[in-house]
TrEMBL record:
This is Uncharacterized protein. InterPro entries: Pectin_lyas_fold, Pectin_lyase_fold/virulence. It comes from the Bacteria.
Length: 229
């Protein structure tokens, strides 16, 4: 078949995004996680600067729903272990988030990575900052429960600044990111924010960010979460 048939715009084709590549699940660079602790440990093992190439994780499969709020994922004790895991701005009103907390998780210092779920598992109570790396795929994940009513601004949602994903908010640039087949429920602020650091070079081929086949949905998959406040 003529390869030119597939030479189309979009799908990160220009930016040559391949993530971590096609790996067998038995590979030492493929990790399957089912808990918050396992997921954070996996993120700690994506850094080329601290690992040999054969032991750096290139594919992280999320095989269960993950509750990643700051308190429910270990709070200060976890931050002491993983500096990329910190508290986001503290919730003000929502009873669930007041208990779970909201975390801010950096995905950084990687070079070729896939984070995905085979069955669309859900990540709750966390925002991700993609920075200081390139060539990332986020696939088939659901993001939920990152919202509360802001009485101070009557719904303008500026104070807490919670976004599900932020790309490029860093002194070190980050590019070649492909987000697809993901679902995003109502967020306090942004769904995916792309900022000025979302670039690793001077040409389109070095900088691409693609979001495709993803859904932005109202409310929450958990009806009681929206009603509790």
């Amino acid at each position: 078949m003529d390869a030119a048939l597939f030479n189309v715009d979009g799908y990160a084709a220009v930016a040559e995004v391949t993530g971590g590549g096609v790996l067998d699940e038995s590979s030492s660079q493929y990790i399957k996680v089912t808990t918050a602790a396992e997921f954070l440990a996996a993120l700690n093992n994506i850094k080329y600067s601290t690992k040999t190439a054969s032991t750096v994780y290139k594919v992280i499969e999320i095989a269960a729903d993950l509750d990643l709020g700051y308190e429910e994922a270990g709070g200060a004790a976890t931050t002491a272990t993983y500096s990329f895991f910190t508290s986001a701005n503290a919730p003000l009103m929502h009873p669930t988030l007041l208990t779970t907390g909201v975390s801010s998780i950096d995905i950084k210092a990687y070079n070729g990575l896939i984070i995905y779920s085979k069955t669309g598992h859900t990540i709750r109570h966390a925002g991700f900052n993609i920075k200081a790396g390139e060539n990332l795929i986020i696939r088939n994940l659901t993001f939920d429960e990152l919202w509360e009513w802001d009485e101070l601004t009557k719904g303008d949602y500026d104070k807490n600044d919670w976004d599900y994903i932020t790309i490029g908010d860093s002194s070190s640039a980050s590019g070649r990111v492909w987000i697809y087949h993901c679902s995003f429920y109502k967020a306090y602020d942004g769904i995916v924010d792309v900022k000025k650091g979302a670039a690793t070079g001077t040409t389109q081929a070095e900088n691409g960010v693609t979001i495709s086949w993803s859904a932005v949905l109202p409310g929450s998959s958990n009806a009681s979460f929206m009603k509790d406040q």
